[in-house]
Amino acid sequence: MRCAIAKVSVSPKISLLEDRQIMMKRLLLASLFAAGSTMAFAQDGDDTVEEMASEEETQMVQETLSKIGCEASSVEKESDNLFEVDDATCEIGQYDIKLDGEYRITVMSIDE
């Protein structure tokens, strides 16, 4: 009985180190792509104004802001219970201010 031994042709192998380097490069590129997409989406979201507050809502916001020495040139309505004033002019500087649906200040941060 004869045993035949097949000769297998093997293509050049990539070393384990080279294989890991390729995988790390791919992972890095995928991560950078994902991060770039997320940053672009976040930027778009920050720049959009849902709608401007009504005249009555703006007046209520102005009344609240006047109590702390501030004025708003415009009032954005982010949701039914959230108003935002970008670049409010106050006696102590310029601020971004958020108010809830009851016109109470919830966030006030210096605008740099």
Structure description:
- Strands 1, 2, 3, 4, 5 and 6 form a six-stranded antiparallel beta sheet that branches.
- The protein is built from two helices and six strands.
- It has helices at 16-47, 55-66, and strands spanning 51-52, 70-71, 76-79, 82-90, 93-100, 105-110.
- Strand 5 and strand 6 (105-110) form a beta hairpin.
- The chain folds into two domains: 15-48; 51-110.
- With 112 residues, the chain is α+β, with helices and mostly antiparallel strands.
- Residues 40-44 have low confidence and may be disordered.
Helices, strands, pairings?
Elements: H1 16-47, E1 51-52, H2 55-66, E2 70-71, E3 76-79, E4 82-90, E5 93-100, E6 105-110
**Percent helix among the residues?**
25-40%
Given the structure, what is the number of helices? 2
**Terminal-residue CA separation:** 89 Å
Instruction: Give the overall shape.
Output: rod-shaped
Low-confidence stretches: 40-44
Strand fraction equals 25-35%
Work out the number of β strands: 6
| Order of H and E elements | HEHEEEEE
Structural class assignment: alpha+beta
What count of structural domains?
A: 2
Mean pLDDT: 81
Using only CA atoms, what is the Rg? Answer: 30 Å
The major pleated sheet works out as:
6 strands, antiparallel
Task: Write a brief structural summary.
By secondary structure, the protein is of the alpha+beta class. 39% of the residues lie in helices and 28% in strands. InterPro entries: PepSY (IPR025711).
List keywords for this structure.
2 helices; six-stranded antiparallel sheet; rod-shaped; PepSY; PepSY domain-containing protein; 2 domains; signal; alpha+beta; 112 residues
